[in-house]
Amino acid sequence: MTLHQNLIAGEWVGSEGVANINPSDTNDVVGEYARASAEDANSAVAAAKAAFPEWSRSGILERHAILKKAADEILARKEELGRLLSREEGKTLAEGIGETVRAGQIFEFFAGEALRLVGEVLPSVRPNIGVEITREPVGVVGIITPWNFPIAIPAWKIAPALCYGNTVVFKPAELVPGCAWAIVDILHRAGLPKGVLNLVMGKGSVVGHFMLDSPDVQAITFTGSIGTGKRVAAASIEYNRKFQLEMGGKNPFVVLDDADLNVAVEAAVNCAFFSTGQRCTTSSRIIVTEGIHDRFVAAVGERLKAIVVDNALKAGTHIGPVVDESQLKQDTDYIEIGKSEGAKLAFGGDILKRDTPGFYLQPALFTEATNQMRISREEIFGPVASVIRVKDYDEALATANDTPFGLSSGIATTSLKHATHFKRHAEAGMVMVNLPTAGVDFHVPFGGRKGSSYGPREQGKFAAEFYTTVKTAYTLA
Ligand code: ADP
After folding, report:
1. Quick one: CA dihedral 350, 98, 432, 406, positive or negative?
2. Domain 3-247+452-476 belongs to what architecture?
């Protein structure tokens, strides 16, 4: 089997390989991927540092052309890359292809942004002096990504980093090296000078840890767990480095008495269970007012009966497997915790057997949950959701906001008054009205508040905030 190597200083390197296993079929090895050492990470940082002066001064047309070429190739290969994604991560083929298209669109967007770099020119308060405000690249950017969006998250960090003239050391999650390798290969062949983008596939505790402790990494963008996020923050403060954290959520989805029942059920089932509940924008707290509660729970139960959990690559599958054994254990542990806390397991929660050996879990729906239970406060990151019954809109809003997180918040209602009030008062970075809490566009800001996120927003024009530093220049006329 071909060994997919790391890219350091423009060379493919590495000998020791690790098998990438398909969670829908654990007999299926997706490929062998090199495992980087701390020395490799050191070489990657040195290469990115050496490449920075020239790349930071490269022409905007060169950056545009490379990003556009990468976008075109990703979009042209969407079926193949989408299949690779589904095979290594376990989301359905439709979701895998959709995510791949999104990655292509992100590269296309930032190819355009490279041609739209703007500054400001304004008069000084002192006569005969002009002021220019410009944005410059930050330097070497460390990119550390999770397994749940194997191509979109790398894309939305790598594309702006390169667009604004930074060089990159990219460490993908151990479970999904396939898509990471593929986009680095595409960018490399699109003509990136050596050292501008370095790939170090390897362990967080080795490669990631090295990046955190490298004074030559000027910025780190991280998506993953709270624990690792805190490490990134502490190490970055030490080096006076810019950092950006995206650490998940416990997103509420409110259903009011006046909701359109079909809209509410579709949105709730989508955001609680699709992509196996493994999205930071998943909603695992469904907060329902008492007038619609019983009808809503019955309709969700009916809808769940029609959901097919099976091999991600199989036609007709709605929900693929959980990503690996330890995540499956975490999900089933939380199901036991929910039961022991007194919530009622109204649907699902069983481990399922399918034709191929994989980590299949039937979506689990709890009812009679309270917002104080652990299943309502801690991120589970699986297809496990709870319904919390409330009296009215005011209690629903208070419950929705009563969480340490603040990524995405949704409501199903036909009331303009409540929708407007909710948009204004939901303590979250993103608010959805009559839509699932998950499912966001690539050209607008993504991010949260409270315990979910730290630093500037990702995606769209707002990405410039993190990937550039501002300069103010004064000139005597
Ligand atoms: P998840 O629960 O999504 O696996 P992690 O925070 O463990 O969350 O992983 C997210 C990313 O952070 C992965 O690429 C992982 O390898 C990396 N990582 C894990 N531990 C560390 C660490 N100590 N230092 C730097 N990166 C790490």
Report:
1. positive
2. 3-Layer(aba) Sandwich (3.40)
Domain with CATH 3.40.605.10 in the chain: 3-247+452-476
Residue 95 appears among annotated catalytic residues = no
| pLDDT digit string, tens, across residues 296-307 | 999 999 999 999
Hey, what CATH topology would domain 251-433 get?
Aldehyde Dehydrogenase; Chain A, domain 2 (3.40.309)
Beta carbon of 228 within 6 Å of any ligand 1 atom: yes
> Is 246 noted as a catalytic residue in this protein?
yes
CA distance 396 to 413: 12
* Burial grade of 386 (CB within 10 A; 0-12, 13-18, 19 or more): buried
Is 233 a pocket residue for ligand 1 (Cβ < 6 Å)? no
What is the average per-residue pLDDT within 115-141? 97
For residue 184, report the distance from its CA to the centre of ligand 1, in Å: 20
Beta strand extents in 63-218 (DSSP E only):
120-123, 129-137, 140-144, 167-171, 197-199
Q: Which of 73, 88, 174, 246 is catalytic?
A: 246
- Report the pLDDT value the prediction gives residue 15, as an integer from 0 to 100: 87
Binding site membership of 344 for ligand 1 (Cβ less than 6 Å) = no
pLDDT in tens, 268-283: 999 999 999 999 999 9
* 430-468 per-position pLDDT tens digit: 999 999 999 999 999 999 999 999 999 999 999 999 999
436-to-15, 400, 411 alpha-carbon distances in Å = 44, 15, 8
Give the contacts of 145 (CB within 8 A, at least 6 positions apart): 153, 154, 157, 170, 171, 172, 173, 180, 223, 224
Going by CA atoms, what residue is nearest to atom 14 of ligand 1?
173
pTM: 0.98
The CA 447 to ligand 1 mean position distance, Å, reads 19
- Amino acid identity at 256: L
Radius of gyration of the chain (CA): 23
Which of 35, 89, 144 for a ligand 1 pocket mutation test, highest count of atoms within 8 Å of Cβ? 144
CB atoms within 10 A of CB 473: 11
Q: CATH 3.40.309.10 occupies which residues in the chain? A: 251-433
